[in-house]
UniProtKB/TrEMBL annotation:
Keywords: Hydrolase. The lineage of its organism: Eukaryota, Fungi, Dikarya, Basidiomycota, Agaricomycotina. One of its GO terms (molecular function) is hydrolase activity. This is Alpha/beta-hydrolase. Residues 45-259 form the Alpha/beta hydrolase fold-3 domain. It holds the Pfam family Abhydrolase_3.
């Protein structure tokens, strides 16, 4: 991230518990500081990565605090339950429940969803955000208060065992990059086994959703030397073909999640800047 950290006086942060089926999960809420107690903000609901089996609220904590201050937006970081203890679809239902909780409790966290309701995630979190993008489109709960943007970083959006024939020629990276420094085929197979999701279930492989029409605008970031590279490319293609708004940024010569391992290098810094630029684009209505 940028060397300039936001002043702690520029925001407030609070962890809250959200009831979910069979238990509760934590969300971390960051709200920009303002002298106007009546002021409300758009909201960015974020879902961390980690292959559905690792990760927590600390993955992106610093970045979300910075985004909240820079963009004057409330950020809600979701600590969904992880596999193998909580296999598919628990992470998805937890994340969707957290999103609904945000809408139900908007006033108490100074959110006005008419100013923007962005759902985002990285890697596995990008999978969950993409699936949620499809689910909320058809859910009457969101009528009149729709998700207005999807912020997807290196999303995993289709299981290799479920590649349809018409897309196989576009999905080559899984074979090309089997042993990268940050993500291997063996690692993907193991985490997917722990998750135990049916490969062709469109809630796990949202590329296989019956329709991609009517999705919120999407901003996608992805890397060249990443077995998930073509997931992003195919998703972008399908959204565009369905008449949706989509914008992407491609990072050449780097593997999956490189910006977490080397956050100070110039290309990693560009990733963080692009994330904020993508958020601004979505908040502006994806012009």
């Amino acid at each position: 991230m940028s060397a300039t950290s936001p002043s702690e006086s520029a925001y407030s942060v609070e962890d809250r518990l959200v009831p979910v089926e069979g238990g509760q999960i934590k969300v971390r809420i960051v709200i920009p500081t303002t002298d106007d107690e009546a002021k409300t903000f758009p909201v960015h609901v974020w879902i961390h990565g980690g292959g559905f089996v690792f990760g927590d609220l600390d993955n992106d904590d610093y970045q979300l605090r910075k985004i909240s201050v820079d963009q004057q937006i409330v950020t809600v970081n979701v600590d969904y339950r992880l596999a193998p203890e909580h296999p598919f679809p628990v992470g998805l239902t937890d994340s969707l429940t957290a999103l609904k909780w945000v809408l139900e409790n908007a006033a108490s966290i100074r959110v006005d969803t008419s100013k923007g309701l962005i759902v985002g995630g990285d890697s596995a979190g990008g999978n969950l955000a993409t699936s949620i993008g499809h689910l909320v489109r058809d859910d009457p709960f969101f009528e009149g208060r729709p998700v207005t943007g999807l912020l997807l970083r290196e999303p995993s959006v289709i299981h290799p065992a479920a590649y349809p024939d018409e897309l196989k020629a576009d999905l080559l990276a899984y074979d090309e990059y089997q042993n990268t420094p940050t993500l291997t085929r063996a690692g993907l197979l193991q985490t997917r086994a722990w998750l135990n999701a049916p490969p062709a279930d469109p809630r796990y492989s949202p590329v296989l959703a019956p329709s991609h029409a009517g999705l919120a605008p999407a901003f996608i970031q992805y890397n060249e030397q990443d077995p998930l590279r073509d997931d992003a490319r195919v998703l972008e293609k399908l959204i565009r073909e369905a008449g949706g708004k989509v914008k992407s940024v491609f990072y050449p010569g780097v593997p999956h999640a490189f910006y977490y391992l080397a956050p100070s290098i110039s290309l990693a810094q560009k990733v963080w800047r692009d994330t904020e630029e993508g958020l601004r684009w979505l908040l502006a209505g994806a012009p």
